[in-house]
Fold these 2 entries.
Entry 1:
Amino acid sequence: MELIQELGELERVAMLDSLTKLWNRLGIETLLQREWDYATRKNSPISIVIIDFDNFKRINDQYGHLVGDEVLQASSRLIMSTLRSYDALGRWGGDEFMLILPGCNREHTTLLLKKIQTAIAKSPVMTAVGPLKISLSMGGVSKFVREEETLKYWLEQADNELMKVKRLGKGSFLIAE
């Protein structure tokens, strides 16, 4: 019994990002597939959002990676504080995060992303070099899953929306339907 508990703990740790304590890429992909399958079976809406920290490379270059780490840690906690208990946030890679909003339509996703933007804008990140203001660009997809669509297609759409936001000037979000 103890060995089973230890194996469960090891599996959980293997799916967590050591820096932010959020889901890591493997963890969030696993959860995303489960939520995608559920939304498909139950004909329920789902939203998938990719979050990118604007000018994060500049923060690392100017202040160092430890300050960059502080920004990721504090910001991820702040984002988590805006979410519903059954939403999920994970580190997708580097300074990109994946947000999964089960049962969330476009209207509610828009409200939630505005809430995240407001929280980030009002709360400079306290770091070793002082407070830093950050902004986020977000691109997502929010709708009911259609039979002919794949999760890969949705991720490509979310990434395309994120790239559009970055081209338009950053610090905002777009959601495909």
Note: The domain at 2-176 is CATH 3.30.70.270 (Alpha-Beta Plaits).
Entry 2:
Amino acid sequence: MQSMRRLKFFLPYCIITLGSAFPFGYHSGVINAPADLIKSFINTTLVARSVRCDGRCVDLIWSLCVTSFLLGGFFGGLIGGVLANKLGRKKSLFLLSIPTVIGSLLMMFSKMAQSFEMIIFGRFTIGIACGAHTVVGPMFLSEIAPVNFRGAAGTFNQFVLVFAILLSQVLGLPEVMGTTELWPYLLALCTVSSVIHILLLSICPESPTYLYIIKGDRRRSENALVYLRGQDCDVHAELELLKMETQQSSTHKSNFCDLLRIPYLRWGLIVALVLHIGQQFSGINGILYYFVSLFISNGLTKQVASYANLGTGFTILIGSLASIFIIDRKGRRPLLMFGISACLFSLLLFTLTLIIKRVTEINKLTILSIVLTYTFLFGFSVSLGKSVSKYFDFCIVFPCMVTVLLCILLLKKQLSNYCII
């Protein structure tokens, strides 16, 4: 009986992250390992079309395959908050799983159709869904989680994301699916998780916060809370908090100007922007998308670089696991200070190592640079994390109506991500 109660408690979190964090993480990492195979496919396709194209042209098309996901994420982030309030958190996740499946199928049939454009458009379509997921998913998690579990639930969201990155890296190995015949199926494998998510979403309750504050339905909100907390739990205290927030929302409708005008919202906005801009310019995206290419250019063989790439996923996974057990006990500030300090010193030493290697040609320094990269990734995973975990934290800081506005504002910085990559 106790195990069934625990399963019922954790199941909604698993369902939500399976359809939001998992595809985001998988498609962030899956494009790295089969890079040479996709470049070869692009070149073969151009030759078959009698198009003359040198290596730089192929690299440009390859870059479009990578960055189309980020560009789609920028546009998806802009509509995520609107969908969450218009359709609800649950229906939004259901709707967003459809373009994920469509984009995956486009990539799966790209080789058969001899069209690299299908990879670009497929990743763009998935990017739209994942960009919206970074708003809807963490918001949904924060609204169904008890107050004392919100930090761990948000870190669980990041854990699923980095697990998906690691899984994509393992499956991308030449011994698994990183082959000439199987790479299209590797890109499309996330279809399975999206279909399972669609099937299971029916047993997941809608957000009590959405039902009470947006829809004004106290009865359904109470039923959702009872389902989430258990029949023997008193949910009246949480309902009273929702009632107070509803009264505040009815007396003053939040807008973007409030983020600058109201002191506590303004300081929250400053914290949000500093963390997000720091996350974007930390260098994490360059490592995730170009780790293999980076270390091949620094002397590693393709096979060794592919296995070293697995270490990135394992390192972030370990950091995320550590965060789950620490964040609600020690708080976010100590984790941020420790992680950002680790990122700073590891990047400084990494840069110094590459400069010395270029001058002295000492090959063993490549190993040191990999270790420093792992150190950076561990520090990043326990502090800045991925964007989705940061949105989750701000769902705790800001009122419900302001959170949607803030998430839309912060997703606009995805454009800087696209420019960097």
Note: Confidence is low (pLDDT under 50) at residues 386-393.
